[in-house]
Structure to design on (355 residues):
């Protein structure tokens, strides 16, 4: 029997609408040749929501996300919103969405497609066999700790990094479980040589590790990790870390794969799931058909894996991406000397053809 899967699509700003359109195309094509059926409903978040509804996260958007099986997001943000007060910034919409849906676990895989080995800024011999899963805590840490304030008259500002035991335990468990399905190794990244919050993080991660005797746990300071990622990235299996360190390290890890345009992500909670590319809204190339839709298409594959429990279909998409890259199809961000880049829509079309 065919069951409808409802997906809320949040195209957002900049290149968001272009890249989500290609992911929707791929999902529709997949539905046509499988037992799945998707119903897509669109809603606003980010700058476009500020323009239309005067808030970056309208209540109706949050409610619609909650009543869907999954959320597929593009990207948010544009320079014209940079000077708005904090509560009107597009980023606030995304943070409130993550918090509102309880999406505490952000999975950001960085896998090198062999066909793109030469697109990385690192030498091919260093990125061979790179297959890292960054598990980033997404609803706590310095992004959400209070107080957060700018005290103009006092000439100072503060943000607060807070982690509660249950927040550390649940993200550590996600990492240990994920490692159990991969290489059985978890590296927890912190700044425990300086920050109390990190000392506590490390202690609780160690404590949680006793529940997973088959997983090898190591610890690394975040500055060292940033260096190790470019020195010898193949050493990592699963990296688990807090919100801000994960934000920074996942951008760095994405470049191992050749382009930020390649990295998908899944944001998971106990009740809801959202899938989005790691890259931003790239306002400089918005609306020009230059964006790489692969990160969003690969995010749709993660949706099939995690929300729909269809690793077979996720693999179908992954294979189609790989085939398309092997055939030499490149958007501008991954085109090398002499290669003529294809448009966003052409890349999507090629992947559909190769499904
Ligand atoms: C990301 C982004 C966001 C973050 C911004 C846009 C709020 O950089 O998803 O990595 O910092 O989490
Ligand atoms: Mg980021």
């Amino acid at each position: 029997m065919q069951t409808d899967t409802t997906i809320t699509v949040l195209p957002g700003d900049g290149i968001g609408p272009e890249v989500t359109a290609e992911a929707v195309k791929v999902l529709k094509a997949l539905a046509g040749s499988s037992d799945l059926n998707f119903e897509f409903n669109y809603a606003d978040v980010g700058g476009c929501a500020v323009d239309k509804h005067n808030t970056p996260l309208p209540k109706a958007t949050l409610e619609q996300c909650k009543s869907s099986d999954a959320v597929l997001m593009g990207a948010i943000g544009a320079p014209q919103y940079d000077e708005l007060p904090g509560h009107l910034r597009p980023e606030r919409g995304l943070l409130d969405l993550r918090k509102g849906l309880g999406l505490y676990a952000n999975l950001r895989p960085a896998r090198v497609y062999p066909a793109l080995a030469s697109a990385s800024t690192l030498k091919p011999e260093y990125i061979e066999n790179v297959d890292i899963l960054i598990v980033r805590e997404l609803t706590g840490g310095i992004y959400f700790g209070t107080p957060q304030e700018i005290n103009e008259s006092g000439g100072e500002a503060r943000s607060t990094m807070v982690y509660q035991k249950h927040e550390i335990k649940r993200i550590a468990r996600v990492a240990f479980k994920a490692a159990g399905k991969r290489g059985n190794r978890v590296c927890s990244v912190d700044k425990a040589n300086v920050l109390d919050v990190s000392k506590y993080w490390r202690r609780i991660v160690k404590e949680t590790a006793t529940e997973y005797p088959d997983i090898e746990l190591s610890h690394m300071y975040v500055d060292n990790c940033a260096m190790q990622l470019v020195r010898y990235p193949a050493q990592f299996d699963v990296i688990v870390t807090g919100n801000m360190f994960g934000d920074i390290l996942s951008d760095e890890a994405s470049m191992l794969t050749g382009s930020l345009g390649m990295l998908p992500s899944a944001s998971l909670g106990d009740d809801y799931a959202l899938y989005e590319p790691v890259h931003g809204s790239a306002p400089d190339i918005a609306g020009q058909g230059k964006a790489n839709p692969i990160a969003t298409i690969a995010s749709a594959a993660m949706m099939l894996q995690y929300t729909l429990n269809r690793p077979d279909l996720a693999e179908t998409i992954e294979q189609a991406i790989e085939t398309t890259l092997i055939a030499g199809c490149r958007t501008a961000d991954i085109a090398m000397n002499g290669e003529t880049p294809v448009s966003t829509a052409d890349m999507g079309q090629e992947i559909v053809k190769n499904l």
Observations:
- Residues 115 and 276 are 23 Å apart (CA to CA).
- The chain has a mean pLDDT of 96.
